[in-house]
Structures are given as C-alpha cells and as structure tokens.
Amino acid sequence: MTRDLFPGFDSHWIDTEAGRIFARAGGEGPPLLLLHGFPQTHAAWHRIAPALARTHRVVCPDLRGYGWSSVPRDGEGHETYSKRAMGRDAVAVMEALGHVHFGIVGHDRGGRVAYRLALDEPGRIERLALLDIVPTLVAWERIEAGLQPAAHWDFLSRPAPLPEEEIGRDPLPYFEGLMRKWSGKGELDIFDPAALESYRQSCNEPNRIHAFCEDYRAGRTLDREQDARDLAAGRTIACPSFLVWSRGYLEKAGAEAPLESWRRTFAPRIDGASVDGGHFLAEERPDETLAALQRFFG
C-alpha cells in the first residue's frame, strides 16, 4: 500500500461541471489553493504543503483529467480543457470547502489555470504565485519565432489521435522521459517513490492521455486566444503577484527574462525570486521554494 503523502489532511470528492474533483485539504488560516502541473497530480505539493498548512488552510486538488479527478469528454473547440474551464473547477472546489476568496499557487499547467482565473475573476484571488512559467501567449510566440523548442507543446497539441496513439504504445517511457529531461539532475530520483507512483498511475491510462493532449490543444487555441484578447484590451492581474522560476529550466527557455515576460503583459508589478535546479521546484528545491512562498503569503 502506498503511504499517505499528506498525513493529517482530509480527502474530498467535490462535484463540479467536470464531474468529481479530488482534493486534499489541511491546516488552519487563510485559504490557499495549490494547483499542480503536467504530467503530475496533487502529490507534487507533498514536500511544501504541510509547512504551508501551519499558517494557511491548504487545498491541493487534482486538475480535471489528472490524478483521481474525473475525465470529462472534450467538447467543441477544446473548451473542456481550457484553463478558463479548469478555473471554474477551482472556484467550485474552494466554494464547496467554504472559501469565496483565496490565495493561489500554480505550477506549470496549474499556473496557467491560476493566472487565467486571476484575470477572469479578480475579486476572488487575493494573492497569486506562479511557479516556472511565462504566459501561454508568450510561449507560443517564442516557439513560432524559433526562440524556444516546440518540443512537447507542438507534439501534444497536434490533432487527435496522432499523439494519443504514439504515446499509447508505451506511455511510461514517454512521460518519465519528459520528467527526467525537465529535472535539474536528469533523473527520477528527485521524486518521492509514492509521488512518482501517483504520476505513473495517472499517465498510464488512455482517457487521461487524451485529456493531457486536450489540455495542450486548448493551450494552442483557446487559451492563447483569450490571452491575446486580454492583452489587446489592456487587462492585467489586479492582485499582488509573485513568480518563482528555475535557473536551470525556465531561465534557459528564452532570451527574455521571466519577470519581464509578465511585466510587459499581464502583471506589470509582479515580483519574484529564482531558484537553482530544474522545473519541479516544489519537489527538487522545496526549502527554497517554500521560503519564497512564505515571504510572499506571510
């Protein structure tokens, strides 16, 4: 039996438009929502959530299509896996747990959900922390300009069923290869075995593989279009915002400094801090990541 990575945290199954969203919640204090990235689950937070729970009510859900959450059928135009739709799940989860206003931390795809929600519903989000991302629109502009490798962004967002079929022939080597590549050491031993097992279970299932691809298809289309409309309208994130980025991953991904990507687009007053290591900050560099978040959230 896999050990519990969140001892003392409650487990919740919360009904949303996507079906049921699974979440762990623990601690007392101001509510703080943690949203994981690809190809992970809520287990990504296990090294920092207990410390954050000493001062906050911490909620760690699985995004729709990931982990133990439902896998809704994709609708027209990839809307089902848009970050706006995933943001509605986040609101439903927090409201079901009694929180109308809350802080939010998002890593990778979860970060894209987080900043989209902060733009869409500015009255809800009190403070926003993003881990190791630039805006979706900026990332696609870099890819198309040849300043950033297309890599998995292009592959996963290709029309169905091409990527699903290719990955489905042997899913674990594909996903584990990505995690090795994005880690600072190039190895899987940065992950706790129980967390790695959670990721393997989520990745090794055809419906979830399709959901992952739809997540990236939405990023290439709807998410990017929504970013472009907001940028043209001059909309920015209203709440205090903070970026934690990796010197070994995001800083190498483009010529522009990560903070500058946000300051010229959606977060003109964003502050931030860099951390050594690869992409998986909360697992590779939990002490430094936690310290940065604690400074921001108090």
Automatic annotation (TrEMBL):
Keyword set includes 4Fe-4S: no
Q: What are the protein's GO molecular function terms?
A: hydrolase activity
* Keyword Transmembrane listed: no
List residues of the AB hydrolase-1 domain. 30-140
Name the InterPro entries for this protein.
AB_hydrolase_1, AB_hydrolase_fold, Epox_hydrolase-like
Concerning SUPFAM superfamilies, the annotation shows: alpha/beta-Hydrolases (SSF53474)
Annotated keywords: Hydrolase
Q: Where is the signal peptide?
A: none
Q: Which protein are we looking at?
A: Haloacetate dehalogenase
Q: Report the source organism.
A: Enterovirga rhinocerotis
